[in-house]
Amino acid sequence: MFPYSSTLVSSLLLFAIVARAAPADIASTFPRPNEWCLLKDCAQPPANIVDRAVTLDQQLFGPGPAKCGDGICDIARGETCSSCAADCGGPCKNGPPATKCRQRNHFALTFDDGASEFTHGLVELLNKEGVKATFFVNGVWLMRDKSNAAATKFAYDSGHLIQSHTYTHRSLGDTKVPYSHVRTELVFNDLVIESVIGRRPRIVRPPYLETNPQSLTFMETAGYVAANINVDSNDWRLAESGKDMTSANVARNVRQAFAAKRGDGSWIHLQHDRYGFSTQAVGEIIGFLRGEGVQFVTMDVCLGIDGYRAANDNPVLATAIAGKTLLGGGLPSVNASTTSTTTTTTASATSTGLPLIPTQAPPPSNAKAGEGDKPSAATVGRVPGGVSMIAAVAAAVAGVLLY
């Protein structure tokens, strides 16, 4: 009944699929979810966020492969200030993460691993005390429970600083973690945070306070600033031991840690807003520190930098090398005027259209390990622009049938 050969139909279907799917090129920039997100029942970023990251890579860096010396800092495929100094503003200049503030007597209260059921109450307490803090959040918790996203937005609207702690709290010091996983943890976390508060963070608190040359050179090239601590509440040790988990012990730990580092002259502290017993100690800790005469600051003030990327900044490269992309410049035919205009357009396009509060995270991937050459579970069956692969095939079939 059908007058055309199966070969012709197959060819047309393949052409339709390739034509629509080619721009994604996800295998070359982001690994599969089951490869980089190792948490049980991992809540993946929504498909629109993943699509945006893939499309942004294509717009900025093209289809690849990376070629050092072509004037494009292809950070998506491993070029950094270390591996390709010529394209990426090298040699690298930044040292290890900061452990104290730049100005004497500044004290930064920071909370890791949020948001959680305790974050909203903690923000209310901080607001009552008139103290601004910094929250280093993991995107997975914002995707897993929309109340966590709401608490993060409440903190931001209250004047607190929201910064990055990677998407799943994976170590940035583990030499077994591939470069692409480090980048995915940070880029996806940025996009999730942006979907909640409308801003992209610049400061990263490395999980476990761990870094290595790979993660440090990536962060420098990408425009991040890593920040560690010198006053540890050790609430995490109390939680791990399962013993003595009281607010009094947390407050005692902070007093002792502060006394040991009094000579540093400025301080970055650490607590975790995932622990209710720890957040209950914050009022006592603030009272103690006020008695010591410290000046409370957020991490951007502490480090003397902007805490968020500007709206017209390149979202994935340091400002100093932001022009070295396909759309942003770096090619001989692109002049300074075009560079500025195009970069602004790209940044603007990537910061619109996302819901302020995520509704429902997609289900975790059922993909098996060893399938890294296949599309992400969050984007399988999808192409940039929100058009499904099935729709593309259906359109091709319809075209053949109607011919």
Automatic annotation (TrEMBL):
Pfam families reported in the protein's UniProt record: Polysacc_deac_1
Region named Disordered: 333-377
Example of a GO MF term: metal ion binding
Gene Ontology biological process terms, A to Z: carbohydrate metabolic process
SUPFAM superfamilies listed in its UniProt record: Glycoside hydrolase/deacetylase
The protein, known as: NodB homology domain-containing protein
Upper classification of the organism: Eukaryota, Fungi, Fungi incertae sedis, Blastocladiomycota, Blastocladiomycetes
Comp. bias regions, Low complexity: 336-352
Highest taxon in the source lineage: Eukaryota
Key words of the record: Carbohydrate metabolism, Hydrolase, Metal-binding, Signal
Domain NodB homology: 105-297
PANTHER family: CHITIN DEACETYLASE (PTHR46471), CHITIN DEACETYLASE-RELATED (PTHR46471:SF2)
Signal peptide interval: 1-21
Organism of provenance: Catenaria anguillulae PL171
